[in-house]
Amino acid sequence: MKKKVSIFLLIISILIFSETVKVGVILPVTGEFAYTARHPQEALTVAQAIKNRVLNYKIELIYADTKSTEEGVKQAVEYLQKQGVVAILGEVTSNRVLAAAEVTEKYKIPFLVNIQGALEITEGKNYVFRIGLTDWDKATALAEFTARNLRTTRVVVFKNIKELHSVGMTKYFLERFTKYSKDALVVEYDLEKTNLEREVNTGLNFKPQSVILTSYNDAEKILTLLRKKGYRGYALASDGILPENLDKDVSEGLFFIGHSHPEAKFNKNVDIFFNKFYEIYKRYPAHSGAAVVFDSYMILLDAIEKSKILDRERIAETIRNTKNFPGVSGYITVGNDGNTIKSVLMLRIINGKVVYIDRISPEMLRK
Length: 367
Prior knowledge:
Layout (H helix, E strand, L loop, with lengths): L1 H16 L2 E8 L10 H13 L2 E2 L2 E9 L4 H14 L3 E4 L3 H14 L3 E3 L14 E3 L4 H15 L5 E6 L3 H14 L6 E6 L7 H9 L4 E4 L5 H10 L5 E4 L10 H4 L3 E4 L9 H14 L8 H18 L4 H9 L4 E3 L2 E5 L5 E2 L2 E7 L2 E8 L1 H4 L2
Parallel strand pairs: 1-3, 1-4, 4-5, 5-6, 7-8, 7-9, 9-10, 10-11
Antiparallel strand pairs: 2-3, 11-15, 12-13, 13-14, 15-16
Helix pairs in contact: 2-10, 2-11, 3-4, 5-6, 11-12
């Protein structure tokens, strides 16, 4: 008991007497998913270039490598807890975010999640906040767009049974799409047991008007096989797509969920973010989710300012009361469940460029 009290007092003293406000960032800097760390790092560099002080303290970002594993995530959070951070931002996959959330909740550290959508991440949590969209939001938006905008009634949904995001996306897509049409085939697969040839053939034999790619990691592989086998119908994907990694001939015409776009001008912060990003990197973000990382950082700073004290519990309570925050990814309201209520963007690749197509409002999703 004495040891626990001593550790608690140490953390409190770090928070109070530090000359900086320490914010933790957990990312897979090494390992299988190291390539994904660049996008949130760039977004945070832009965020700090715009604002790097709060309550007269300088913001100090402390990065911790998750090594692309769930165990690495837990170790990274433990490390940041010892550093006395006021909050944590990051990770990039639902499975690892879920692992991180267990530890941040234990230590009562506000944890701002980006685009990872599994509903389990925030369920029963008091200190976990999703600034991006839930899988329900994304899948419901895809279903609405497929049925109403594209007017397709016959679809194939590819489902990776080992991927939390894919499983959730498939479930929620069908819940909404089947209100318009029952003509839907789910093709399940396990990448450890298949090269996807058989599954793609099964999907094509159904003669779909649209295919739905629900996996973060496999969309490119499936889409490539579909195109090679002559499929020319609509293809729609979740928000894990990285257009720069796709072959132009394969990706042409692909619709996908987006979080931001220079043409989706929700408020003045859209131009501020994209202009500063271009000033620093001489290009726009490769992933639309970069704006959600930026918004997470800004919402955290806003909560610290409103709390007027470096107290984790107070900061968490303030984040939960966020209403209509003018984010780059839309006006953001945090619900009682820790999830964000905001619009969903539909983007499309045309002539190798990402084009803004439509905005689906929270009211449309919840009708």
